Amino acid sequence: MERRDFIKLTGAGVGGLILPITGNIVSAEQLLDRPMDVVMKKQLADIALNAAKSAGASYADARIGRYLNQFITTREKVVNNVVNTESAGIGIRVIANGTWGFASTSKITPESIAKTAKQAVAIAKANSKFQTEPVRLAPVKGVGEVSWKTPIVKNAFEIPIKEKADMLLNVNNAAMDTGASYITSVLFLVNEQKYFASTDGSYIDQDVHRLWAPFFASAVGKSGFKQRSSMGNPVGMGFEYLDGKKEDKVYVDGANIGYNNSYDMVEDARNAGKELQKKLTAKSVKPGKYDIVLDPAHLMLTIHESVGHPLELDRVLGYEANFAGTSFATLDKWKSKKFQYGSDIVNLFADKTQAYSLGHVGYDDEGVKTKEWDLVKNGVLVNYQATRDQVHMIDQNESHGCCYSQSWRDVQFQRMPNVSLKPNQKEDLSANDIIKGVEKGIYIAGRGSFSIDQQRYNFQFGGQLFFEIKDGKIVDQIEDVAYQSNTQDFWNSCAQLAGKSDYRVGGSFFDGKGQPPQVSAVSHGCPTTRFNNINVLNTKRKV
Amino acid sequence: MSIVTEKQAKKILTKVLAFSKADECECNLNGQLTGNIRYARNTVTTAGEVSDLTLAVQSTYGKKVGTATINEFDDASLEKVVRRAEELAKLAPDNPEQMPNLKPQKYGKMNTYFDATAKVTPEYRAKAADDGITPSTKNKLVASGFLTDSHTMSAIMNSNGLFAYNVATNVSFSATIRTKDGKGSGWVTRDYSDVSKMNTATASKIAIDKSIASVDAKELEPGKYTVILEPAASVGLLGRLVNSMGQRAADEGRSFLSYKAKENEKNPPKNKLGEKMFDERVNIYSDPHHPEVPTPSFAGDGAPVGRTDWIKGGKINTLRNTRYWADKTGAKYNPTATGGNQWIMSGGKDSLEDMIKDTRRGILVTRLWYIRQLDPQTLLYTGLTRDGTFYVENGKIKYPVKNFRFNESPIVMLNNIEALGKPVRINGNMVPPMKIRDFTFSSLSDAV
């Protein structure tokens, strides 16, 4: 991510939270303006498609987008900032001479759109000099005029700013009352109003909503300081996610509360304060081999890094070699149909259809209807994540529907769909049931530090909360834990899964990829899961 | 119209301020004209250009602040954005940390603009890609890379009469060249303010040579090793150290620079300012006027920024702060120049090659990857080596070695210095090649 795309949102000092923002800052009421009329959007999109075709394009698509964000940041008893942004424009992608071309403009007038379409064709033709193999698109049947909307209950943009700011200040008070010394809390709202049209005959109008409400608390003690961030998840939901319903809470005996499809942020902050005080005096982990039990709010990130990224086909093929890297999950391993990615209870699937998830949409950004498919079945690698121009490289003729662009301004490309671990199909075990079976282990909750190599073999993960397990019971909160493993070894050590009642969806709001970099939001579902005999390090160091 | 002249900027911003009815008003005008090309699998994959000009207006009533932006510049739009900022300010709660606008300031001459960079063409970018693609194809290698050039302007004016203006150019290039069998990988990066210093052909050759030389890497046991860190390898850890030198976090007890008071100590300091924490050869400073890494010499609020010594002779010399925190604690205001946290680490005269020659046993590291913090109290980080890791013995590169994961703190690193070489520009900073003893590698990685 380039520096100009970031804005510093908190008063947390140097090294504070820095987030990507695209668009212009606008007033709150402008966020509620009605989206552009669909009839108008169709007319403008047709101008783009016709101009591209007349200029020599064999295929064209146009995305007319209005992207709205609201960010509220607070620190202790102060509201630092309320930022509303809006960005609107059109991105036009074409194939000419068998080569992609792309151009975009914020000026949504017929003249500007036609000019931009011609520019996209000119870029495609110029780049075709370097093209070694022409683009091959998997067929997509035009769907005509359709629409899709995130099934939200409460539009978070419609909640008064004061109510949202007060909620965050309540969160801060709750954490400070129980033991936090400092806290920053934030509410991020995203609304993508996007209209897609292509020469295949699709006119797709989508209204996508996402929300994330994290906090970052710390406590200062005599011998140092400790940090604890929130256990809530970024979601494809409205403000109803913050209702904190009882039925969405998962209680792990002697440890934390997990949250499913709604989040009690004040309760989590209250617990964070107490846990921070325990962290200040908790004993340091003894390094060695342990059976580890990972809660879904933690395991989601391990799935993201060790399954989601290595199975992106563009990485496998080398398109990301200069930035994010390539992948150990090479085509020969997939072709063998015998590559044991994990133990036989490991079933990993991809989708953009799970309710409440960040990836949930009706159609991707190249007009492909979204679906679900298997990546790893009974432990064996069976598929990748691919777009229309990639699937022929893995002998398939139907796109997986995972093309995405962060805005109208940027070209769409392959992005990670939701990648999730199926729960135990035989028994509906709880997190407590999984812990009961562990003799010497560590239970890890929440996402912490994460690092993995450029081919996704060697990784090291921390967490938010760590608990020692002895003879099937959580006995103590401990500190300084990180586990280190190799992707294939790790997933083959997967020993037990909780059942569907324990399945929870977590996610990443700002996953970065590409040059120039783009962000996307993606979820990962999983149950509480046990992995045997994992190498645990102690991260405490004297300096 | 994305890059406006100083005269045009002054005219626009004067007009904006004339619309203001607030107690105070500050406006920022930022323009950018950027271009890029990306290639992979020995072919160009994407190329594009972006131009944009944005005006941000911040209006203040007492301690209430509102901000609005716009990218249209007719009179009606300019008045609209001022009214909108004022409306938001009236609705906002008091921000106790809001500081009054600065009075007019004086700035040194800024040498951040290079005409050649502003004139980079799509053809130049295509040639940069071809400089990697053609030799790689000939050598049966696979090239990927990215070049981006930018021409930017920034201007500030406030209702106290402060005005600052700057134009800057930058170009950055990186390439990863891999062998077809995936057993070797080499990487290179270059960035300059003046594109005439850029040679993408010689840079690409380095990545090509490293990719061939890194094939069939041998396994060494993880442990503590003497390492020669190329500037691109140490920039990530050192940058994180420099960016962690904030005064407020230190004063609040949440930083490696927080002072731990001894029992019964009277009036203990809040932070470690003045404490010697590193080898005395460690000197790190920022200087907007450095000829190799020039930046604008003003901060976002228009405060002038000159040379600032963060670490001097191994001692903590200056902590970064905001104007509010400086005012509250009676400290000097030490802002960051717009355009980023540029820093310069002093070194010696030796080149990387000289340092290799002087090494009996060690590991040469091209770059570190996926660096993440493990403990903010000790600045312990983890990450991995990537794209060219070699064993050095008796002054020569002997053979490639498999990549390692490291768990190490830059605080430890800067206490274990064997030698510092001649600094070169990396990511807008000046970084010397460094030889460090007892660098901790905790495990091996199969990644190439």
Notes on the protein architecture:
By secondary structure, chain A is of the alpha+beta class. Chain A contains nine helices and 29 strands. Chain A has two domains: 3-170 and 185-216, PmbA/TldD superfamily (PmbA/TldD fold, 2-Layer Sandwich), CATH 3.30.2290.10; 284-352 and 374-385 and 420-538, no CATH class. In chain A, strands 3, 4, 5, 6, 7, 8, 9, 10 and 11 form a nine-stranded mixed sheet that branches. Chain B has helices at residues 6-18, 75-91, 115-118, 122-138, 200-213, 231-243, 247-251, 323-329, 352-357, 410-413, and strands at 24-40, 43-61, 64-70, 141-158, 163-179, 185-192, 223-229, 284-286, 308-312, 315-316, 344-345, 361-375, 380-393, 396-400, 404-408, 417-420, 424-426, 429-431, 434-444. The model of chain B has no long low-confidence stretch (mean pLDDT 95). The interface between A and B is large, with 74 and 94 residues.
Descriptive keywords:
heterodimer; A: 543 residues; alpha+beta; PmbA/TldD fold; 9-stranded mixed beta sheet; 19% helix; disordered N terminus; B: 448 residues; 6-stranded antiparallel beta sheet; 5-stranded mixed barrel; 10 helices; 22% helix; 37% strand
CATH architectural arrangement of the largest domain in chain B = 2-Layer Sandwich
CATH top level label of the largest domain in chain B = Alpha Beta
Total number of helices of chain B: 10
CATH domain class of the largest domain in chain A: Alpha Beta
Helix-strand makeup class of chain A: alpha+beta
CATH fold topology of the largest domain in chain B: PmbA/TldD fold
Count of alpha and pi helical runs of chain A: 9
Number of strands of chain A: 29
Largest interface (CB < 8 Å): A-B, 74 and 94 residues
Radius of gyration of chain B: 24 Å
Number of domains of chain B: 2
- Give the C-alpha Rg of chain A: 24 Å
User: Ranges of chain A with pLDDT <50 over ≥5 residues?
Assistant: 1-21
Portion of residues within helices of chain B: 10-25%
- The CATH topology of the largest domain in chain A is PmbA/TldD fold
Helix content of chain A: 10-25%
